[in-house]
Amino acid sequence: MHPVLADDLSRLPELLQSARDFAAREVAEIEARPVVQRDKAPDPRPLPTEGAGAQGALSRFAASWAPGFAATAGPRYLGFVTGGATPAAVTGDWLTSAYDQNAAGGDGSSAAALERETLGWLRELFGLGEAHSGAFVTGATMSNTVGLALAREWLGDRRGIRVSEAGAAALGPVDVLSGSPHSSIPKALSVVGIGRDRLRTVPVLPSGREAVDVARLAEALEALDGRPAVVVANAGTVNTVDFDDLRAIAALKERYDFWLHVDAAFGGFAALSPEHAHLTDGIDAADSVCVDLHKWLNVPYDAAVQFTRHRELQVRVFHNASPYLGLPTGEPDFVHLTPENSRRLRALPAWFSLAAYGREGHREIVERNVAEARRLGEGIARVPGLRLLAPVRLNVVCFTLAGSATEERVHALGRAVAESGEAFLTPTFLDGTHALRAAFSNWRTSGADTDRVLAAVTRAAGESEA
To answer: Member of which family (predicted)?
Structure first.
């Protein structure tokens, strides 16, 4: 064994303690650190010929790279839809690396059984029935990709074609309908060979809504003259957290032949709140469902789940035909359910967080985030230089400048907030207007954090008017 590696092995408990101490300091200081770092990153160095050992590597990382890492796990990082990592989830994630289980197979380890238990808990959490089976994937984009790959196979069955064998070209043109699809949907369509151009946006409801007009969706389906299609419904749009009427869309299946995919990447967590659970009514009728756990479940990247009612299609698309892997009989191994052959035990951080805090603990996170989003929205509505672009429906505040909201001025406002070190927001474009959006999904975020965000946005807006 290489002497440096042997020395690290002999001192492994000490090295893990050093890493623990460093991580604990970083986490303890996260609320005081600038939310994003604007300094130039270090220049890359050549690959070292002689290694420095784990302690030396930690020292080099702490000196060179750690200062430039963003506080994405902190309470005022409101960009994209980014959760943090609960203490229990971090515990589970560390153990995931320590055990280093390949969760793709079920032989010789209880890892796959733990994943199935976690999937059962999540299915219950989101109001899905026993007909839905699931598998962990890397994120919402991969979850949407898997769901649309299954939809592609289902379309092939309707035409007497096994697309997984014959290829997407044998399927011919496909109709994919959606009101306000997330950008990951056309990306997924590109990956599965359906093509970005096959996505047709259906008119949404009036008065600033992002939810699809179900009557117009029915018209679009009627115009297909019986051709089977794919409908992508939204349980929480990215700009305003608007929800399609999932029950009404599912009812259209009585008249039209389509696969219903529900993108519930973060909006699915509305099911935890009695006040908002009605927004996810009808999700159980979906053929496939996307839920992203490193958003509102607050587990570390990367973790999402793909649920489907059609496991037989999932096995057909993703099975790995190799003698050493075995056949996907009975309860198929996860190697036959996702694009990956090898996969880390992403379920363990989720298992830890659900076991530690239960439904009620995660409900409290959701409801507190929603309350803080409302507080920020109310505060922004009182700032003369700002205006809300949409009601605060759940956990996202979408706003813009009250005057000339050009792309340059709005993006400058976002940069000014980021450069203050107080908060991070992401830009967007809604109904022809450039805007910023603040997404509350971090388990740490408190009223004091919301006040600091509002103060930073107010200062930056005032400076932009000066």
So the answer is: Belongs to the group II decarboxylase family.
